[in-house]
Amino acid sequence: MLIVSALAQSSAVEQTNTPRSSVERLERQHLQAVHEARQRFAQERRLPPSHGLYDDYRAVMHIHAEDADHTKGTRPEMLAAARKTGVQVVFTTDHHGPKPEAWRGVRDGVLFIAGSETGRGTLWFPDFGPDGQPIPDSGYRFLSHVEERYDADTEGMVGMEIVNRHTDAILDRRLEQYLKEAAAEPDRWRKVVEDFRSFPDEFFGAGTDYRPEMLAKFDRATQAKHFTGIAANDAHQNVIIHGVTFDPYEVSFRNLTTHILARGLTEPLIREALTNGQVYVAHDWLCDPTGFMFGAVNNLGVFNMGDSALVLGRTRLMAVTPLAAKLKLIHKGAVVHETTGTNLTFEAKETGPYRVEAWLTVNGEERPWIYSNPVYLRGPALSDLVLPSMEISPEVEWRKDFAYREGAVADAAKHKLDVYVPKGKSNAPVFFFLHGGAWRMGDRSQYPPLGNRYAREGFVTVVPSYRLAPKHPHPAQIEDAAAAFAWTVRHIAEHGGDTNRIYVGGHSAGGHLAALLSLDDRHLAAHQLSPKNIRGVLALSGVYDLTGGEGLESVFGRDAEVRRLASPQTHVRRESPPFLVTYCQWDYFSLPGQARAFHHALRQAGVASELVYVPGENHISEMLKVSSKDDLTVAAALKFMK
């Protein structure tokens, strides 16, 4: 699941002292100490396991160039700084409306998205027409410069700046005054320039502070609606004194970023993720936060930042950081749980928005590092209680309880299968489906909605039961799957099925079994069959690699070689049948990553494979929606099999 083993408490969460002022932080001993702390953080940082659903794109927002007298940077300088700092998305905001000549699209691996700062308070990122002109009233808007308008209305906004370098500069004029005074004294000025050039990130970061008023406004907004918090660099590259630029793009870009969790580096996907709140904000200059995760976990699946999650059974809020930190869980503006380390877990009982802050101890000071966007917990609605009908359509015949193998009397019920036959059809394609349930639960009796749906679509549908762990550990499940498939090959013609068009599918644990049956030919060889008897494979939210880490010992044991051979990905080869691989937006932890890696392995081996992402569904609803006319998983399956 989302939890990983906590790292030992590090220097990042040591005992703290009284906070320093921004000017005090510019003293050389403090700059040196902060620099050494950053080096330790980089060494201690460990990348947590990934959910695999999204990639983490480092973005900078509210970036100015060539659009006002007080902006000194250029777009080529922006691009150079982005590439040097690992920034992948740059949101530019011209001061006087989006310009047709503004950079848009990918340039040298960096995606540019053009917008404008309208008045003193709104960032507007419009859509553009074929003529390159911005389309009025299109795109989305963020509330900006909140320090100047804490009472500003959020109507019509999709989010707001929760951290902004401009805010730090406006609310703390001491740094500005310090530089002006130093510039008038040659010896002092030489020391300031030397310190800046030796410690540019520490020098620039001295002005970063926590702004509770902005976060309070954000918390109030998220209680009313889904609302995205972003970071604004507000970079102008214009703090130039005696020829020294104290806010170069490179330093500014490293200082503060908006991390966008998206499925790809395209403008539509980045915009979608930003609008949905799949975002966290970080002071990257302290330590690279990539790998940070925050979400809700329950029996339905994993729900990420920006998502709504149903409070069902045991619903846990979980956060993971790549470096030990002080972690604060905030609900409706109040801290409800606090811990130190790399993991936070909290069982939620109340609904509403929850977000996380991570703080690091830097040279004896607690400094803010990461601000998540919320997960929105909600109570059940009537739509959550709708289950698929168990009724069989008049055009379908449900034929039950065919024994497909011999075995112990106690296992007789698990050695049977059901067949759903489209009436009046002959020589019809066959869908052989293996149920899920973590190899430890489930039965064919739960799947009449699936059998009925695919039979109505013209498929003779076979749904077997199989023995379950822990009483019957692996390989009992795959042995039963192979025996049931062998029965299907030998008997399905008696039920109107075409033995030359048998598709094998399964969901969750059944997805693993379907893939293993189709790739590891030893299991079918025991029945004088081979994967050549399989026309195609539908692996729905399955598990394909059991070699990493622990877990599932009650099913697969701990022997590394057994687990390797039980992994479908181990057996991928060019001669394999074609695959359809699916995963859901709110699937169980690691399943999206497993699906993407498995699909990649198939394609690399030359196997025809189609990867389908199912938005708006969780691991359970993917099966519950099987009766819905417009279900995306069913549509993809029918397209694949027809």
Outline the structure in words:
This protein is of the alpha/beta class. Helix content is 27%, strand content 29%. The protein folds into three domains: 153 residues, Sandwich (Immunoglobulin-like); 189 residues, Metal-dependent hydrolases (TIM Barrel); 248 residues, 3-Layer(aba) Sandwich (Rossmann fold). It has 18 helices and 28 strands. It has an 18-stranded mixed sheet that branches. Strand 16 and strand 17 form a beta hairpin. Helix 2 crosses helix 8. The chain is elongated and about 95 Å long. The two termini are 36 Å apart.
Features:
642 residues, alpha/beta, Immunoglobulin-like, TIM Barrel, Rossmann fold, 3 domains, 18-stranded mixed beta sheet, eight-stranded mixed beta sheet, elongated, disordered N terminus
In short:
This protein has 642 residues and is of the alpha/beta class. It has three domains: 153 residues, Immunoglobulin-like (Sandwich), CATH 2.60.40.10; 189 residues, Alpha-Beta Barrel (TIM Barrel); 248 residues, 3-Layer(aba) Sandwich (Rossmann fold), CATH 3.40.50.
State the helix count. 18
What's the shape?
elongated
Q: Based on DSSP secondary structure assignment, what is the total number of beta strands?
A: 28
Counting structural domains, the number is 3
